[in-house]
From TrEMBL:
It comes from the Eukaryota. Residues 203-472 form the MHD domain. It comes from Glareola pratincola. It is a peripheral membrane protein. Belongs to the adaptor complexes medium subunit family. GO terms for biological process: endosomal transport; protein transport. Keywords: Cytoplasm, Endosome, Lysosome, Membrane, Protein transport, Transport. Probably part of the adaptor protein complex 5 (AP-5) a tetramer composed of AP5B1, AP5M1, AP5S1 and AP5Z1. CDD domains: AP_MuD_MHD. This is AP-5 complex subunit mu-1. Transmembrane segments: none annotated. Coiled coil: none annotated. It is found in: Cytoplasm, Cytosol; Late endosome membrane; Lysosome membrane. Its main location: cytoplasm.
Length: 486
């Protein structure tokens, strides 16, 4: 249940738009009843927008505000507490995508003090599904302003169908009709759930794709802990006859593989082991962590949907790296060493290491040696692109050494207030098809369909880098956590 929904576009701090939003007064009244003395009223649209942008550091980000910027407050999710004149609004679900902000305020059907665990607030998964549905609807038109404006205008009608009276019924916005005709064409079969907008006719076919993104921060320092984590999503497309077909999908892990944690499921899932939802990466790994089986019984929507999201704390990152940058007079000496983990047997679709240089002029002179791949200089002469290719050598190690000198700096060259002096990084970009770092997979025996006919089942996986940084070990680097070692 959602009591407030909207998104804002922020192309600059001087141009703020609030093109589409909906409020649900009936749900706000319910919130006041549930929350009692802890209830915080939703402010006016303009006040909510101002408070949200402030919380997301999109305005006044140069000013230190203790309740927002203190290091003791670290967000591990897209759920925020937004400070307003009437108190702190929580939980506000918000994230940025392609220059837009998508946000909603789910209903919490209990008192807010003390705050309940996120996994017990059912409105969060419903709100997330609704926002992701809107992302899928809006994203294809991002490069065409006229088309996007038209879609935003249509979205007002679509929300009436998708979320009548504040309850998300069909989060697949793309499947809805921009006119009101769909309201009369809703299924008449009382057993057909609202999220199945039509009935499939044909041979049964189930397609599953597991996408894992690995985020990483490596420092190669004795007193700083390297950080990495896997974020996975299981996407399904179930073409099955019947008004309400029952499907059960099991995610398989290798023996002694890292457990899946922070699991969030689509609202079409009919039942699930509560222990699975309570397994959180915020807790230290011990015997209490849920180790499966990861079974999801559900009635699938008509179109493609994300069955679940998860995280995993794998023991090692896929690529270990070391970056050293030393300034000697007018030159920089750089050394980059990368080592691929032996468990990765698959070929890369692409693998590239980018070495940017901020707050300096164009690269005027470059001497280098690579043990593998090729090195390219960007057109702006402020970035080195080390293209490793589709495979590492048999040694699983590659290296780059070189010296770089720069010309006079101009306004057109990139600047960064974090990467000053020798504080610099290498950023890795790679994709490995048909591979997951956790070993999570789906096979023919992982899916049960309680419907006539033998289904065709196809499955795939992929590992993609996301914010994969290797910082210069010879200079200070931004860190979230340090450990003290003797």
């Amino acid at each position: 249940l959602v009591r407030h929904f909207g998104w804002e576009e922020t192309s600059s701090t001087n141009r703020l738009l609030f093109p589409c939003h909906r409020r649900y007064p009936t749900v706000e009244i319910r919130a006041e009843t549930f929350n009692g003395s802890t209830h915080v009223p939703v402010p006016s649209d303009s006040a909510f927008l101002k408070a949200l942008l402030f919380e997301l550091r999109l305005v006044d980000d140069h000013i230190f505000v203790e309740h927002r910027d203190t290091c003791t407050r670290i967000n591990h999710s897209s759920v925020y507490s937004v400070r307003t004149e009437g108190g702190d609004l929580w939980p506000v679900l918000a994230f940025q995508k392609s220059g837009l902000i998508y946000a909603c305020l789910p209903l919490v059907e209990e008192t807010l003090e003390p705050r309940p665990p996120l996994l017990t607030v059912s409105g969060l998964s419903q709100g997330l599904a609704l926002l992701l549905g809107i992302v899928d609807y809006i994203s294809p038109s991002r490069k065409n302003e006229a088309e996007m404006t038209a879609k935003i205008g249509q979205l007002r009608n679509l929300l009436i169908q998708a979320c009548p009276l504040g309850t998300p019924l069909n989060t697949n916005i793309c499947s809805l009709n921009s006119s009101f005709d769909d309201i009369q064409e809703m299924p008449t079969d009382e057993n057909q759930p609202a999220w199945r907008s039509n009935t499939y006719k044909g041979k049964p076919h189930v397609n599953v794709c597991i996408t894992e993104k690995v985020k990483c921060m490596q420092y190669d320092k004795r007193d700083v802990v390297d950080m990495w984590q896997v974020y996975g999503v299981v996407n399904c497309k179930c073409d099955i006859e019947g008004s309400a077909p029952n499907v059960t999908l099991s995610l398989n892990l290798p023996t002694n593989g890292p457990p899946l944690q922070d699991i969030v499921v689509h609202h079409c899932v009919t039942s699930i082991d509560p222990a699975m939802l309570m397994s959180s990466s915020a807790e230290p790994l011990d015997d209490s962590v849920y180790n499966g089986p990861y079974r999801f019984p559900f009635i699938p929507p008509s179109d493609s949907f994300n069955l679940c999201y998860y995280t995993s704390q794998v023991p090692v990152p896929p690529i270990l790296g070391c970056y050293q940058l030393i300034e000697e007079g007018s030159q920089l000496k750089i050394t980059v060493n990368l080592k691929l983990h032996e468990s990765i047997k698959n070929s890369f679709e692409y693998c590239e290491a980018r070495i940017p240089f901020f707050n300096r002029g164009p690269i005027a002179h470059l001497e280098y040696k690579v043990s593998y791949g090729q090195l390219d200089l960007s057109r702006e002469k402020s970035l080195l692109a080390w293209i490793i290719g589709q495979k590492f050598p048999k040694s699983l190690e590659v290296s780059l050494t070189g010296t770089v000198s720069f010309g006079a700096a101009g306004k057109e060259h990139p600047t960064d207030y974090v990467c000053t002096g020798n504080t610099a990084y290498v950023k890795l970009y790679f994709r490995i098809p048909d591979f997951t770092l956790t070993g999570c997979h789906v096979d023919q025996h992982s899916i049960q369909i309680f419907a006539p006919g033998k289904p065709k089942i196809t499955s795939s996986g992929e590992l993609i880098s996301s914010d994969y940084y290797i910082w210069n070990s010879k200079a200070p680097a931004p860190t979230v956590y340090k450990t003290l070692l003797d």
